[in-house]
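Hello forum,

I keep getting stuck at the same step: I have a sequence, I want structure tokens, and every attempt I make locally crashes halfway through. Rather than fight my setup again tonight, could one of you with a working pipeline run this one for me? It's a single chain of 309 residues.
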Amino acid sequence: MSSVLVTGASGMMAMYLTSALLKKKHKVFAVDSKSNEFIGTDPNYTFTQCEITDKDTIVDILKGNQIDCVVHLANTVDNDLDQYITDIELKRAKATDKFIYAAARDAGVKDFILASSTVVYGLQKGREPIRETTSEKGNSNYSDLKLLSEKLMQKEFKKGDTTPVIMRIAPVYTSEYTQNLVDRVYDPKDDVAFIFNEGDYGFKFCCVFNVVDFINAIIAGPQGRYEGIYNICDTRLTTAKEIVDYEREHRRIGAVVQRSPNMGFTISKGKAKTDYRYFDPGNTFMNWNYDNTKAQRISPFRWNLSNTK
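Reply #2:
Ran it on my machine without issues. Output:
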């Protein structure tokens, strides 16, 4: 079994991951500024409450415990960041990444898995699926934060034997957490859900269980085999109509209005730069089709909105 350090350990993705790791009898070292429900429940779970910027504490964990794999989930929005990504968060993430990459390399960590985001691709036109080789056109503070994290990681791990794995994760959801889905079909100004025409257009999202399966597969696989960047997302698009039907089934939305794609919307480019949650309906028909073919060679990506319970 492996020893795994999970940062941002009290965030949503990390909690699902921790549950899976402990079931497989891995030893989990967890760090977060907030406590969580796993503390004191399993002898294989060691929790340290500290800020992710606490260099001395985190370096000591890496030095003293023969960590096989680091799963770096801190500095993702579901863990440590609010929906507004400011210069403060950018500086904090950069400082954290610099020391934790170097410490992992020096400690002989075998695999380092970084949670990045598909926001680094920005807005893409055309019909070709967005692959890992597609140019990055992100134009927000969060895309800048994640792209810098990727670059710092790749630079640091050119030295040493640590294998870098970058997960570019599409907006996540579970059966209970569907905010990222709802953002695509909800107008906060008018307080109403909407679809264009019949709602047969779609977006790529990622069930959290697909992230967990992928990480488990990296940990279980031969060290060094899976280096690189991977799109982590559901295999097929989720249509606007499917989102609306799903939320209606769970009684989380009321009336839904039908709109024309040509109708005007009030947008805020300034807000889009800093607000991770902001979605401009005018971008609905851009290319949101991320290709996860490369990642499917490692994990089956069997989860989607229809089988997530």
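The longest helix spans residues 87-106. If your local run keeps crashing, start a new thread with the error log.
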